[in-house]
Amino acid sequence: MAKKAQEKVTASPVVPMGYSQLLTQVAGHTFEATNAAAVGLLQDAGEGCVFKPLGKPECGVRELNFYESLAAAIATQAKADAGANNLNGAGGEGKGETDQSLLAALAAHVPRYYGQLKLVVNQREHTFIKLEDLTHGMAKPCVMDVKIGRRTWDPLSSLEKRTIEEQKYALCKQNLGLCLPGFQVYCPDEEQPEQTVLIRKGRDYGKSLDVMGFQKALALFFNASCSSSDVLLHEVLNQLRSIRTWFKQQRLFHFYASSLLICYDFEQLQKLATSNSKVSLHNGFHADAAEPVLPTKSKEWIRVRCIDFAHIFPAEDAQPDHNYMFGLQSLIDIVEAMLHR
């Protein structure tokens, strides 16, 4: 049984029937009890979707356009694959087709997109983007939002906006290219280990972190003291490396103020720890293997996805996104160090 979260969740908003506030939201714009215009994420009654409100007009349109472009690339790639099969692979790809294929490949690393819709929240109509709920089916969802890149202001930002962004999360951002806006994690209770406590940390906590503090926060989030955390860390690394591979190839976009959302189910981690304590081979380890063989369904309860695309711009002179890759590599380095501690 989980104890009450250590940080209070904001008051419930007035939403349409069948929808509710997304209680696993850990960062971004949220509902405010004293501001009816402030809108956070919603979830449905069990379809496994979340609903993200469009932000400022220019940012909301940019994010919506990105999801629509991604959906179009996926559809184009599906037709191309079908045509290639019919022609037994004959013919080559032009640059346009190659760019579409590369964009479509990002779909594996982004929550599924189901279009947009309008909902009345707190007696005001808002436009939402309908996305896959990455925590759907998780009994004890642990969620972390990690903002990637030293630079979090986009090319259209004013001097004032740039100055504000440079001052946020300065210690971690400049050294690691990472920010920690928030996370929630289930952990064994220190006083009663058989019970579980939910810990929630927000932006004020993240802004206080230096490099060592950031590393400790990740160790807390990944339950590094748990006997089965290696399985979790290996799968997170696999997914982070796959995202890195895509970014090394792409010259289409530069991602500013974009995040990685890391989710896993603590209940599954507990089950692995229990089976590991009984018979070592039952949790997927070979006695003589250097790395664990991950449970076949690990990707169902361990998910790493790219999110937040309101500040994506075409890559200048087709240059790699070094800003994003710097932060991503820092995150990979930290997780690797935890794994080999």
From TrEMBL:
Its EC number is 2.7.-.-. It comes from the Eukaryota. Coiled coil: none annotated. Keywords: ATP-binding, Kinase, Nucleotide-binding, Transferase. InterPro entries: IPK, IPK_sf. Pfam families: IPK. It is an enzyme of class 2 (transferase). It catalyses: 1D-myo-inositol 1,3,4,6-tetrakisphosphate + ATP = 1D-myo-inositol 1,3,4,5,6-pentakisphosphate + ADP + H(+); 1D-myo-inositol 1,4,5-trisphosphate + 2 ATP = 1D-myo-inositol 1,3,4,5,6-pentakisphosphate + 2 ADP + 2 H(+). Belongs to the inositol phosphokinase (IPK) family. This is Kinase. The gene is LOC108611529.
